[in-house]
């Protein structure tokens, strides 16, 4: 979900929280859509529209103890989990003959659910990997140990993957990128404020306890945790910050294998690629060359034993949820409670449904689609997408700050956007992936190796534009700048985003704005640097680029002034792409709605005009409660603003909103200046 390099242009970010205990089957609850009872009509819409649209919901929906955020889309997410649980419980039953997919998803899920079996085995399933780390005799063995761990999706030292070549989107190339940290961002290691120091201390204590669970005795666990902290801090110092990484030019450095070898010689790269199974790599993208220079020094200057401890820590961390309760609980205490403020683990079945979705997402997703999303859903959504694209076309025509040449290119790019709705045309083939009932960790390892191989097999081949980055039940959406396509999984095409029996105004404020949001990502500070074919190429005249940046800067200032927690400000630069997509998206949806309602009778419903209901529809999608810890984490790492500012930030920039609610200059929901790009 939104982890690939440029594919961060999604509707929101998820921070997986671990879980355990209780297995119970719940029938999927009906999801409430747009609801007047969610409002707080005592609030003044011109003073705090978010409170007006969501105050009732916020008061009635405290954060459940097993969550760090609770919002409308979490309600929908839980609904989808319950649908998936029913599918998986059926597939797990061996009472009837099962087909290949049912065997895989059913046995993966059942193995994950078997907590007693997992506890009984203790640390034994990790033995093979831990033995390999134990057997590293010198630093020349390190690259091969790394390779094993990378195959298992363990985040040690750097990331190795496949991506479209940013400057030739028809080809997939190999890429190495910075990685290797256990905290959510480099800043956690480098900032000096009291909160960051406190988190670092708690992190070290957590690493120490995990090492102790692995058998590090007495002082060795504490010394090991210090060594891990030292290595990761040094890696963090060489890492590019999150905001800088948003500029695609900062993370594109195509090099020969020999050039990479001169930056970071401890890995014999050519042999590494051959042995990992991608022979013939001559050039690749080294996303952050300075990181690899730093990595070389870290390896040279660290003691071999410390490097081995670092690798053990990352391995146990990567598989913690599939280990006995003591490991899973320790993992949750830090990553769930300390970092996000969740008080309890999610029930085990939710964690296992999520794990199956990550491991076998398209086998499971196929069944989800059969149960929930017909061809009618696809047809109606596509109609809406076309409406919004039409609005973008007329918006571009009206824009006064672009020169005709650049505008022409913008139309070409818009015309080339491909729409993907609901689910893939071709389902992924998992037939070579072996899932064994009762072997929870083995299944996880094999699923991760399968995915790693699948990724690497793309290298040197044409880019597959039909592929999906999200599974069908996912409540999210994304724009992919290298494919120039917008993607809406079946999971999000339901209330509160879209309701069959709701008036157009509310649906356009919900899913309509989501569609507009993804579409305008093609034209945000990041997306605008790619052309219609998905190539990183500057198609803007310098004059137009300057005009764009001037307008974008208005958003940076506006959102940087928002404080989710007293004293903690949003990072307007980090959230720029998402904020401009929200602003552009809602405006396009409004234009499309006006076009749809043209020449129609538009009576008030529940006392509200269509314009008022449109903005309420947008507001209610974002009703949420968030722990203070999660608000802080998000402000540091999340490119999306919190719900409150996604609503108030956008409406305060729209004269159409101010007209709908009769707000006047000087009131908080009338931004001065009002920011607008699209
Ligand atoms: Zn987005």
Characterization of this structure:
- The protein has helices at residues 49-60, 72-92, 100-113, 115-121, 127-134, 142-151, 187-190, 194-213, 219-237, 257-263, 269-276, 289-301, 304-319, 325-340, 348-372, 375-398, 404-416, 440-456, 504-521, 542-560, 576-597, 610-621, 628-637, 643-651, 655-660; strands at 19-20, 69-71, 158-165, 168-178, 254-256, 283-286, 346-347, 418-422, 478-480, 485-489, 624-626.
- By secondary structure, the chain is an alpha/beta fold.
- The strands form 4 sheets. A 4-stranded mixed beta sheet has the order 3-4-6-5. The chain has a 3-stranded mixed beta sheet with strand order 8-10-9, covered by helices on one side. Strands 1-7 form a two-stranded parallel ribbon.
- A hairpin with a 2-residue loop joins strand 3 (158-165) and strand 4.
- Helix 2 (72-92) packs across helix 15 and helix 21 packs across helix 24 (643-651).
- The longest helix is centred in the middle third of the chain and has 25 residues, at 348-372.
- It is globular and about 75 Å long.
- It starts with 18 loop residues before the first strand and ends in an 18-residue tail after the last helix.
- 49% of the residues are buried.
- Zinc ion binds next to helix 19 and helix 21.
């Amino acid at each position: 979900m939104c982890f690939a390099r440029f594919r961060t242009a999604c509707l929101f970010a998820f921070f997986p929280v671990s879980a355990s205990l209780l297995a119970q089957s719940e029938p999927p609850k009906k999801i409430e859509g747009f609801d007047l009872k969610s409002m707080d009509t005592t609030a003044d819409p011109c003073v705090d529209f978010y409170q007006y649209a969501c105050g009732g919901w916020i008061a009635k929906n405290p954060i459940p103890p097993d969550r760090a955020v609770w919002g409308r889309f979490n309600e929908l997410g839980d609904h989808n989990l319950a649908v998936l649980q029913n599918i998986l419980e059926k597939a797990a039953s061996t009472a009837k003959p099962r087909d290949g997919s049912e065997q895989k998803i059913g046995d993966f899920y059942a193995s994950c659910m078997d907590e007693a079996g997992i506890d009984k085995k203790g640390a034994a399933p990790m033995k093979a990997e831990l033995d390999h780390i134990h057997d590293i005799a010198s630093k020349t063995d390190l690259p091969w140990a790394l390779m094993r761990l990378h195959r298992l999706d363990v985040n040690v030292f750097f990331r190795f993957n496949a991506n479209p070549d940013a400057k030739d989107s028809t080809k997939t190339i190999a890429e190495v990128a910075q990685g290797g940290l256990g905290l959510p961002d480099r800043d956690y290691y480098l900032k000096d404020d009291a909160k960051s120091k406190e988190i670092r201390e708690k992190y070290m204590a957590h690493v120490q306890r995990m090492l102790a669970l692995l058998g590090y005795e007495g002082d060795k666990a504490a010394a090991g945790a210090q060594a891990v902290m030292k290595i990761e801090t040094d890696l963090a110092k060489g890492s590019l910050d999150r905001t800088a990484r948003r500029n695609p030019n900062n993370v594109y450095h195509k090099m020969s294998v020999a050039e990479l070898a001169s930056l970071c010689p401890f890995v014999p790269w050519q042999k590494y690629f051959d042995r990992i199974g991608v022979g013939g790599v001559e050039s690749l993208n080294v996303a952050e060359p300075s990181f690899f220079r730093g990595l070389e020094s870290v390896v040279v200057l660290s003691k071999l034993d410390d490097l081995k401890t670092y690798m053990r820590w990352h391995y146990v961390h990567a598989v913690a949820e599939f280990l006995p309760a003591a490991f899973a609980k320790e993992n949750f205490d830090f990553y769930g409670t300390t970092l996000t403020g969740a008080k309890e683990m999610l029930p085990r079945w939710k964690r296992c449904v999520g794990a199956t979705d990550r491991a076998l997402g398209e086998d499971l997703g196929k069944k989800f689609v059969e149960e929930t999303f017909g061809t009618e859903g696809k047809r109606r959504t596509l109609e809406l997408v076309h409406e919004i694209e039409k609005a973008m076309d007329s918006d571009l025509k009206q824009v006064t700050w672009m020169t005709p040449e650049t505008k022409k290119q913008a139309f070409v790019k818009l015309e080339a956007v491909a729409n993907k709705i609901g689910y893939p045309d071709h389902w992924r083939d998992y037939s070579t992936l072996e899932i064994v009932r009762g072997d929870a960790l083995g299944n996880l390892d094999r699923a991760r190796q399968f995915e790693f191989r699948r990724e690497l097999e793309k290298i040197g081949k044409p880019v597959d534009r039909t592929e999906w980055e999200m599974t069908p039940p996912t409540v999210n959406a994304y724009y992919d700048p290298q494919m120039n396509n917008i993607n809406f999984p079946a999971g999000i095409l339901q209330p509160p985003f879209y309701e069959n029996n709701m008036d157009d105004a509310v649906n356009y404020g919900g899913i309509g704005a989501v569609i507009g949001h993804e579409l305008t990502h093609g034209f945000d500070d990041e997306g605008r640097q790619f052309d219609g074919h998905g190539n990183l190429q500057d198609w803007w005249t310098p004059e137009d680029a300057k005009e764009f940046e001037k307008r974008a800067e208005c958003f940076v200032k506006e959102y940087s002034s928002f404080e989710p927690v007293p004293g903690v400000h949003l990072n307007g630069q980090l959230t720029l792409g998402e904020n401009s997509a929200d602003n552009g998206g809602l405006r396009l949806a409004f234009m499309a709605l006006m076009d749809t309602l043209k020449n129609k009778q538009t009576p008030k419903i529940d006392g509200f005009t269509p314009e008022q209901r449109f903005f309420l529809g947008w507001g209610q999608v974002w009703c949420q409660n968030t722990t203070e810890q999660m608000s802080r984490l998000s402000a540091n790492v999340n490119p999306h603003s919190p719900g409150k500012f996604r609503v108030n930030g956008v409406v305060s920039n729209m004269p159409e909103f101010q007209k709908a609610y009769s707000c006047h200059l000087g009131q908080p929901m009338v931004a001065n200046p009002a920011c607008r790009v699209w």
